[in-house]
Amino acid sequence: MPKVVMYCTAVCPYCVAAERLLKSRGVTEIEKIRIDLDPSKQEEMIARSGGRRTVPQVFIGDVHVGGFDDTSALDAAGKLVPLLAGA
């Protein structure tokens, strides 16, 4: 399974929802990068995500999935599980 990274903040219902969705699809480890604790991580997130400023921002391996809505749409399209499987 590719590494899953999620940029997030402490109080973010969409971050919680994204984590719940990923875990329901078999993800056991999510590297959470708290942008509220380290402002340099926010700049890193913006650069990696192509300018997005909202959390969460989910990355699976080298693929930027996007926020919760994007992750949920990918799942609804049947493409999240294959991505998590490394396909």
List keywords for this structure.
87 residues; alpha+beta; Glutaredoxin; 4 helices; 4 strands
What does this structure look like?
- The chain has 87 residues and is an alpha+beta fold.
- The chain has one domain (4-9, 28-84): Glutaredoxin (3-Layer(aba) Sandwich), CATH 3.40.30.
- 41% of the residues lie in helices and 20% in strands.
- The chain contains 4 helices and 4 strands.
- It has helices at 13-24, 39-48, 68-76, 80-84, and strands spanning 4-8, 31-34, 57-60, 63-66.
- The radius of gyration is 12 Å and the shape is globular.
- 30% of the residues are buried.
- The mean pLDDT is 96.
Short recap of the structure:
The protein has 87 residues and is of the alpha+beta class.
Please tally the helical runs, counting DSSP H or I stretches of 4 or more residues. 4
> Which word captures the global form?
globular
Total DSSP E strands: 4
Structural class: alpha+beta
Tell me what portion of residues adopts beta-strand conformation.
15-25%
Distance between the termini: 9 Å
Query: What pattern of helices and strands is seen along the backbone?
Result: EHEHEEHH
CATH architectural name: 3-Layer(aba) Sandwich
CATH fold descriptor: Glutaredoxin
Low-confidence stretches: none
